[in-house]
Fold these 2 entries.
Entry 1:
Amino acid sequence: MRERKRASGALLAILLAIGLAVGLSLAPARPALAAVPEVEPNGTLATAQPVVPAQTLLTTAFPPPGSGALVTGSVAPGDVDYFAFDLAAGQLLTVAVVTDDEGALADPVVGLFDPTGALVATDDDSGPGFLPALRLVVPTAGTWKVAVSGFGDVHFDGSIHSETFSYRLVLSAAPPASTEPSPDHNGSFATADALPVGGGAFDAVAPGGVTVVTGNITAGDVDYWTVPVPPGRTLTAALYDADGGALADPVLRVLSSSDTSLRDDDDSGPGFLPEVASLTAPTGSPTLTLAVSGFGDATFDGSHDESFGYQLVVALGPSGAMVCDVNGDHYVDSTDINAIFAARGQPASGSTDPRDADRDGQITVLDGRACTLQCGSPNCAPKPAASCGLVGLEALAPVLLLTWRRRQLRAAAKGDTR
Amino acid sequence: MKALVRLCLLLLGSTLVPVGAHAVSLSLVPATITASGAFSVDLVVAGLGGSGPPSLGAFDVKIGFDSSFLDFTGASFGAVLGAVPLEAIAGTTTGIGLVDVAEISLLAPAALDALQSADSFTLATLSFDVLPGPVTSGTLGFGATTLSDAFGTALAVTSATGATVSVSPAVPEPAAFVVFAVGFAIASRARRGAR
């Protein structure tokens, strides 16, 4: 199994390297997650660097709860980096710090500060190796701040630690997650658990209807979830895990209400994570079923040996068009905001009018302003032109190549030892 | 008369503001204007968070006036919602006796908080011309108003204070009158002398 994963990782790395080398322009436009570089001075709460979430962290087809940001920075002895970002109450915030050595030597810590400046959560080693990771439901709306420092800096003032490392800080926000019922009983199509999508509190968070559920997969396990999909709406589903798909290799299947497979996916998301975007339910199928399993389980009956925890994010889009995406290009930018601005004062064309973000039947500047928070780029800059590469993952090529090479060296070293 | 009725309706409409968690006020500054030609008036907002929530993320303000007395000639927007057009979208639309002034910021909430540190600030400066005619005074009043915080939530407006405009009284010019009289006297005398 590991050899298989290693082989697939190596293949992916080679493909990405080739794509970089020859400058392929074959892929459809999909904005890559642009890393935001750290800008000093950002060493205090007061000088925290603002970070604008981009919705591309999860998937380009997602409504706003899939927003996130990737920040690159470095910490030296005595240094601490603060970043500020805005969150709505009830969002599920995930903070992860990644280093090139995967936490083998570097030992970062993170602290989370609420809008009043109070330190509400810290973490040292919840991620891989010595890497920290935080996840919590945000109780109040406002500007939250996260600090990245080195082990020992309990006050996040940089005064105690002596760590030196470069890092990538991943921030993501999603609606509150449900949890897989215990004991696990959703291992087949017939016993699938229902996901609450497109109604109630979720619509209050995201008019498109989004939900997140957390679950666990062990060897031989499969989780089935049913999703009601109203006529004319599309389903987008994506799976995430704590290490961003670097190690675990889930697979995802979408089935009709008659247990017919509609789409399988393995690695369309970040790393080895699967993603299914904008799938329309077939006629006569009022519900869709999502099956989560591990790599190798071609029949989704549990024949795999993967083990991971996951977040399944499911969104219902209005007839293929996301809220605020007026021109239907799956990317909210100034073009869409301009269209909403020009239409202010007009009634919405219907319940799925992408210009009517708050669904009050009127297009107003409130809709326009709400939609700016969904923009894929800072200041709602226009959608980036299609770039060379495969699916916008070319930025990961050096990391994948290094990882592959390291694994090769490790395997060789083990062989020599034996 | 129609203009007056429209203005009254607009003023009535200004009281129908959305309910929000925070209250702000709008005003036109100066509140009393005396002009004989072109003049400008600032649209000012006050009562926001000041370097913190709530910040203003967007506004859509209608201002009514007597079109037989005033002519709207243009508007310039402040920078508190970001610089137009890269950081904000702004514009005006006009009707008879009505101008709609609107702007949506493209900045992140934290950036808006940082920009809007003052207790009150100017959203836009509106320019008008006083039209020649029998009407010598009028008002600039608020109509339907929508203010948004940084997250797209409506902010309530507790007060909206318009402005009054009156025509400058004609100023007599004694020097010109004297020159004219002297000229007239000289001409008369010359004519008499010629006879």
Note: The CA atoms of residues 42 and 125 of chain B lie 4 Å apart.
Entry 2:
Amino acid sequence: MIEAVIFPLIKIVIVLAAVLATVMYIVLLERKVQAWVQVRLGPMRVGYHGVLQPLADVLKLFIKEDITPAKVDRAVFTAAPIIVLVPALIAFAVIPFGSDQMTMFGLNIKGRIADVNVGLLYVVSVASLGIYGIILGGWASNSKYPLIASLRSSAQLVSYEIAVTLTLVTVIMLSGSLSMVDIVASQKSQGIWFAFLQPVAFFIYFVGGLAETNRAPFDLPEAEQELVAGFHTEYSGMRFAFFFLAEYANMIVVSAVATTLFFGGWLQPFPNVAWLWWLGLVPGWMWFCLKTFLFLYVFLWVRATYPRYRYDQLMRLGWKWLIPLAILNVVVTGFLKVWLK
Amino acid sequence: MITQTHYLVLSAALFMLGIVGVLTRRNIIIIFMSMELMLNAVNINLIAFSQQLGNVVGQVFAVFVICVAAAEAAVGLGIILAFYRNKETVNIDEMNLMRW
Amino acid sequence: MAEAVAFYIFAALILSFAVAVITAKSAVHSVLFLVADFLCVAGLYVMMQAQFLAVIQVMVYAGGIVVLYLFVVMLVNLKKPAEAYVHPRRLGRLGLVMSLAVFAELAAIATYGWLKPAGVGGALEAKNIEQVGRALYTDYLVPFEVASVLLLVAMVGAIVLAKREL
């Protein structure tokens, strides 16, 4: 009884705290990485080399004046940031951080908050709920630029959601189960990470993930040069902080799911190579964090490198290239799976 | 103890709320949404029976109901948009001409 | 005991959100209450051991169909609402009598169910999604394929209907 309630609660608190702290420092890392790519230094003043910059940012957002425009629909205006943030956070409930038999402080702890037997579909469905916050945030602002930006952004999200879900079908075909814990276990038992069996699916998933989180080069709906600030133009202070938090939390969710599905989750690389035995000393959750950070770094790297797609180019890429490619991938994978049995 | 009857009464109440919505509202989009409420009530009914009889057919049927609801929503909303473009209204009392 | 508490909470939420859907003044609020209603129904499905259907409900119904409704509501956003008048031929007392009759009928069903509870028929297996998948692809393959054709027809029809110029 205690284990069924207290342990998940503690894990939830730890995961939420870790996610929020990571979001704060990803913001700093993004500014630093972009600065280094552009041969400058980024934030350097607050703390040693700008390490305390996120704390300054949080303090600034807390004490900013909360401006609410006059003719907004107040209930929806207040609810929109919450609707964007909650799905991004609850997607962490099914992601396995460590093996199912971890021992910490002498207690047997499972390395995930919950093991739902439709875990992968749960993540997809929760991601599709995040669209509401964007639509409502733009509509409730009662202003032209946010409305256009929110409609564009939600159309983009819905389009790339299809391509992403189709790539997940191939992962399910390879692993035979929808539960995230089982997917990692099947990667362990097959001895190979699914990214090497399904490179096309991984590529489509990553590009779709870039588009799903409104990150460059697909960030037209919220780029400053385009539509003022997109759907969160009229938001200030803590509400803007929620939107900001939600975007980076979404990034972390996409990276964590990519790690779990394609790169073995908490598994160590090269488990069968004898002279790399010392890699086994690193605990599982540390491998998970390392791989997730690698993907987050690629997110930031891509932002600093590629120019922005125009909106019609973006939609054409999603509908005319990625979806047929994903369908072809599913067909070829099914064919190979039956043929090579 | 939650028996099957609890779920059936809940589904009947939800169905009736859907009917009240269809009969009393004038905005045609709200009427469509009340129809979705009715379809959900039917789904709850199907799954309650599926749980009680131990047969998965009820859930398969519910999947088809969701599928048909999606198709109907898409086509119905297309019709509403086409109508709105011509007559600038969504009040069903004003949708009373066979030709215009 | 916990199941009863969960059921009553979900049932209260479902019915109150449904009442809010049919009585809200602004159409956007109606749509939002519909989303909340569907999420509570999905929670109820999890209680009824239909996990696959719960996730499909959130993904397709709440995350797809209602987004469509929200778009259309925003596109036909009129300045004055479509109603706010009482129908001239409204029969209030007859409506009250009939609603009492329906209420009596519901009470009769509930009492009958309490007096003669239905026997336990069978148990669903734990791997819900495997069972549903197997049934869909073996016994119900033809309806499955017909449903996919239906969705294709609906997609083509919706695009043709909503285009600006043919």
Note: The two ends of chain A are 44 Å apart (CA to CA).
